[in-house]
Amino acid sequence: MPQPLTGPLVGQHILVTRPAGQAASLIAGIEQLGGRATHIPFLAINPVADLRALEAIRRRLTSYQACLFISANAVQSAWPTLTAQQPWPEPLTAAVVGPGTAQVLRGLGVSRVVLPEARYDSEGLLALPFFAPDQCQGRAFALIRGEGGRDLIARTLQERGAQVDEASAYERSLHPDAIHSVQQLVCQDMPSAMVVTSSESLQRLLIAAPADLVRAIQQVPVIAPHERIAQAARASGFAQAFVSAGGDEGILKFMQTYNGSSFTDAPGMDVL
Question: What is the rounded distance in angstroms from the CA atom of residue 255 to the CA atom of residue 94?
Answer without folding.
Answer: 31
